């Protein structure tokens, strides 16, 4: 359904899409119902037919990002796919989305699923219940993975913003290669400690999945 105001057509989807565009261009601080109304060329009260508050808007933006991340991905493992491989795929897809949109980690971290998404959430939980996890523990697994994805995405974006702002970390970089003063830091710097954001994310995700598989074995 669309509302016509001064010749402009407005839908809930258009409002949410414009919010995501504003986040990508200017960051979360730029997102407000008033600014979205201006961008869409309508009066602010028009938006309240679809979005009752900024909190509801951000929940809808979070859902939009989640859908984008899981586009083409089923709510259950493919035939013959191990449950842990399915969890890895979901986490990796979400990390890629949250690092591709400015301030996405902050929005997704505080969201609640909309009523329309509850069936998807329930189906995903059911897959872990089916392999032996209690329902409450299955929910905790998704909370833990979501927290890890969000935290790593936030770290990645914050690190990138330092470079964009021209932060000069050269003195720190030289110091941590001084083996006489900081032998362990220097050894880390000389080894494989400096990895790409994706490889660092994958390393941590692998550790989490190993832990979940070990916990699953305990249940059986």
From TrEMBL:
Superkingdom per UniProt: Bacteria
Residue spans binding DNA: 32-51
GO BP terms, alphabetized: negative regulation of DNA-templated transcription; response to antibiotic
Lineage: Bacteria, Bacillati, Actinomycetota, Actinomycetes, Pseudonocardiales
Matching Gene3D superfamilies: Homeodomain-like (1.10.10.60), Tetracycline Repressor, domain 2 (1.10.357.10)
PROSITE patterns according to UniProt: HTH_TETR_2
Molecular function via GO: DNA-binding transcription factor activity; transcription cis-regulatory region binding
Entry keyword set: DNA-binding, Repressor, Transcription, Transcription regulation
HTH tetR-type domain span: 9-69
Ranges in coiled-coil conformation: none
Name by which UniProt lists this protein: Transcriptional regulator
Pfam families (alphabetical): TetR_C_1, TetR_N
């Amino acid at each position: 359904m669309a509302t016509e105001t001064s010749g402009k057509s407005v839908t809930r989807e258009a409002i949410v899409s414009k919010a995501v565009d504003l986040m990508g261009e200017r960051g979360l601080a730029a997102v407000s119902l008033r600014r979205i109304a201006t961008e869409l060329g309508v009066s602010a009260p028009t938006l309240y037919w679809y979005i009752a508050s900024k909190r509801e808007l951000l929940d809808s933006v979070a859902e939009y990002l989640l859908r984008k991340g899981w586009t083409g991905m089923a709510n259950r493992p493919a035939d013959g796919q191990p449950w842990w491989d399915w969890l890895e795929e979901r986490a990796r897809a979400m990390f890629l989305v949250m690092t591709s949109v400015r301030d996405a980690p902050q929005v997704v971290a505080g969201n609640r699923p909309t009523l329309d998404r509850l069936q998807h959430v329930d189906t995903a939980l059911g897959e872990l219940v089916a392999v032996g996890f209690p329902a409450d523990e299955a929910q905790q697994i998704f909370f833990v993975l979501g927290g890890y994805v969000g935290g790593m995405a936030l770290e990645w974006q914050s690190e990138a913003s330092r470079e964009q702002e021209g932060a000069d970390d050269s003195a720190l970089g030289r110091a941590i290669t001084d083996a006489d003063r900081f032998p362990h830091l220097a050894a880390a710097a000389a080894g494989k400690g400096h990895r790409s954001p994706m490889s660092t994310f994958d390393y941590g995700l692998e550790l989490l999945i190993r832990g979940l598989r070990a916990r699953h074995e305990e249940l059986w």
